[in-house]
Write a structure and sequence with these properties.
132 residues, alpha+beta, five-stranded mixed sheet, zinc, zinc ion binding, metal-binding
Length: 132
């Protein structure tokens, strides 16, 4: 898993530096993340990623829309945590994945600049975090 994480981080850095994704990078990310990557690209294509930043601290989190009909938004910290069921079941409990589709979507959207920016007060951001 450490090697996979290292390769993925290198690819994310390359994408962030150019704000675009090459076919080779898409292929590598698809190999690393499989079906979760495909699902994450759909979320990004549909505009389902928001970065919510607190003012004045500039602390931030991502809200990522799920694919279910309910269109739930999950609080996501791309490198660390997502509030979706899959994160706790497939990653924390079973250790079968290194991250969920929402984390991948947040990383991809941020890397290419395809996320919405939302500013809230630090107090509002804190209230959102209470839901964790």
């Amino acid at each position: 898993m450490a090697a996979t994480t290292s390769v993925a981080e290198t690819i994310w850095e390359q994408i962030r530096s150019t704000r675009s994704v090459s076919d080779d990078q898409l292929s590598i990310l698809n190999f690393l993340f499989g079906k979760n990557f495909e699902r994450a690209t759909r979320i990004v294509d549909e505009g389902g990623v928001k970065r919510v930043s607190g003012i004045p601290s500039r602390r931030s989190l991502f809200l990522v829309v799920g694919e279910s009909k309910r269109k739930e938004e999950y609080i996501c910290f791309p490198q660390h945590l997502c509030t979706c069921y899959s994160f706790f079941y497939d990653i924390v409990n079973r250790g079968e994945q290194i991250c969920c589709k929402h984390q991948i979507a947040a990383q991809l959207a941020e890397a290419v600049g395809a996320h919405q920016e939302v500013e809230v007060t630090d107090e509002q951001l804190a209230l959102m975090l209470l839901k964790l």
